[in-house]
Amino acid sequence: MQLDPDYAVSDIDTLERLYGAPAAASVTKEVGYVHPQYRKFIEAAPFVLLATSGSEEMDLSPRGDSAGFVRIHDANTLLLPDRRGNNRIDSLRNILHDPRVALLFLIPGIGETLRVVGKASIHLDPDLLTTFCVDGKPPRSVLVIKVESVFFQCSRAVLRSRLWDPSMHVARDDLPSPGKILAELSDGEIDGLKYDADLPERLKSTMY
């Protein structure tokens, strides 16, 4: 199917006529701080998506740990530890260029998600890092996020996707493994079989 550019929306007026005005509840639910009711969502969430924007690229990065790993410092400040990863530091590079961030909190079994928008800075205070130690290992850094907007997202997307429905789980063997992907992308320079064989122990030993 060929896409007709004449049908692309290019102005706000057309967009607003298409979708109409938001319902009153959609406006009321947004506040500029961590409301006590929203605090419960953040404290229950073991997984969050972090969106950032840099000079040349955008990034959406998954972050996860025990529920409540994103700490509420006060009603206007969140603390997000940056654990071990692949060292690409895409999100951190972007934050140095543009501090604006967006967070999407997900809670297993819950349809509603929580969205937070704010500005982030990267902190290395040893005393702060120590408070986030797991198994004696501190994070590399902590993002201090100044909250500007908080609101919940209704459950339609989660319900439509059946995200938490076990019957929808995909068998791991149905998708290419990390090693197979790397072997193909590197034209065989990376030994995919060895990469996959070593991966479980590597993940276990480098979790924190």
UniProtKB/TrEMBL annotation:
Domain Pyridoxamine 5'-phosphate oxidase N-terminal: start-end pairs: 35-154
Pfam family, one: PNPOx_N
Name this protein carries in UniProt: Pyridoxamine 5'-phosphate oxidase family protein
Superkingdom assignment: Bacteria
PANTHER family reported in the protein's UniProt record: FAD-BINDING, PUTATIVE (AFU_ORTHOLOGUE AFUA_6G07600)-RELATED
